[in-house]
Specification:
Length: about 270
């Protein structure tokens, strides 16, 4: 399946943006892609991550603690009954510089399937908080899914990678998950990257020129999965966060060609 610019703009972008909007209290209108409604919010439960957190040092726990403290809501699962399609949309964090300071974490076996390879410990500790919530929403609200898309921006892009492989290996709702992610960092060691790419053939990573987040953590310990689509949404030399904003990514996608934007809504998150 080739990269679809219109699908990225009209479906994946508004879904990724809606994931950030779920952090607001009360939750505003989410402006989901046309035909989709919310099947439920993805919520963090510290009890679900207690075992994994207990095995980590306080420094290794810091990223997960920080992100969960921002909000216990991590996005949503959207459902299109007409097409039997589910979208798992996962938010990132509010500030790029704060969570990048905690990106230096060891590789550990991928917790949902330790035989599959290794992944970033800090990202996995965050994911353990929301893993059960995603599985529950898919199995109870989207059990009839014929297609499952997973998306996220920034840290949410890393969580999307972890979630998609977990859905494939453990939730087993039927279809192989497919991904469009925005600005995601490297998440997997080469062994997990190889298994992921073999098992999940449709994974597009959208990367804006001069965005620093997709460049970390560094190879060869970490590698990207899927295929990269480079966009030129813009950057500001004195503002390292500008190239990372989700709205900057939308600008880059629109520059790939003239595509009408539908369903993206008038409000957009500026989170990183």
């Amino acid at each position: 399946m080739p990269f679809d610019q219109g699908f990225a703009i009209n479906v994946m972008y508004p879904a990724a943006n809606a994931a950030y909007l779920t952090m607001s209290v009360p939750v505003p209108p989410l402006n989901l892609p046309a035909g989709y409604t919310s099947a439920g919010l993805i919520t963090a439960n510290p009890q679900d991550a207690a075992q994994a957190m207990a095995a980590a040092t306080p420094d290794q726990q810091r990223l997960a603690t920080k992100v969960v403290t921002e909000s216990s809501i991590f996005g949503l699962v959207a459902w299109n009954a007409a097409t039997s399609t589910a979208i798992v949309a996962i938010r990132g964090t509010e500030t790029i510089l704060e969570w990048l300071a905690d990106i230096d974490a060891p590789l550990i076996p991928y917790l949902p399937d330790p035989n599959a390879g290794d992944a970033h410990m800090g990202f996995q500790l965050v994911y353990e908080h929301i893993r059960k919530s995603i599985a529950t929403l898919l199995t109870t609200k989207c059990a009839a899914a014929k297609t499952i898309w997973v998306t996220g921006h920034s840290l949410g892009g890393a969580l999307a990678i972890l979630a998609a492989y977990d859905i494939l290996k453990n939730v087993k709702t039927g279809p192989v998950p497919q991904l469009y992610t925005f600005a995601g960092p490297r998440t997997c060691a080469p062994n997990l990257e190889a298994n992921f790419n073999a098992d999940i053939p449709v994974c597009y990573r959208i990367v804006n020129f001069m965005d620093i987040v997709p460049q970390v953590p560094l190879p060869p310990l970490y590698e990207h999965v899927g295929s990269e689509t480079l966009v030129h949404g813009g950057f500001r030399p004195l503002d390292p966060t500008y190239a990372h904003h989700l709205t900057t990514y939308l600008n880059g996608l629109q520059k790939l060609g003239k595509v009408q934007v539908a369903g993206a809504g008038s409000s957009s998150a500026q989170s990183a």
